[in-house]
Design a protein that fits this description.
Elements (H helix, E strand, L loop, with lengths): L21 H4 L12 H14 L6 E3 L2 H8 L6 E8 L5 E8 L12 E2 L3 E3 L12
Antiparallel strand pairs: 1-5, 2-3, 3-4
Length: about 130
């Protein structure tokens, strides 16, 4: 199975109710990523899903996964890698990171096994239903 370039854009949904207005919580000098409109996100995901029918549409990870990665010493963000698991299915591997590198020492955390769609799909205007 060919791996599609899934990580060219990652769209995050609201994950913590304490962030009622995300722009109030961000230090604009340290942000890597850009906030986009929901309409743009819907258009981008529709294009991808039309071009890759039957492929991985989305993956859900609990907020705790992101918080554990971010709470590691030195972590300033999360890097998400495209991967193929032993069953031949597309997936993501998540690691704590900085802009310069990954936190990949033996004691650092690495996550996979999010709930992927098409295996576990939800009704969403960002997903092909």
């Amino acid at each position: 199975m060919a791996l599609h370039h899934l990580s060219s854009c990652i769209l995050f949904a609201h994950m913590d109710s304490s962030f009622n207005n995300p722009s109030d919580k961000l230090d604009s000098h340290n942000v890597v990523g850009e906030r986009i409109s929901f309409d743009k996100a819907a258009a981008w995901t529709a294009t991808y899903q039309n071009d890759h029918a039957g492929g991985l549409q989305s993956v859900f990870y609990s907020a705790d996964v992101f918080l554990q990665l971010l709470r590691q010493d030195g972590a300033t963000g999360i890097r998400i890698y495209n991967a193929i698991n032993p069953d031949g299915k597309e997936c993501f591997v998540l690691v704590g990171a900085t802009e310069e590198g990954d936190l990949t020492e033996e004691h650092n955390l690495v996550f996979d096994k999010g709930q992927g769609c098409p295996d576990t799909c939800i009704v969403s205007s960002l997903a092909r239903n």
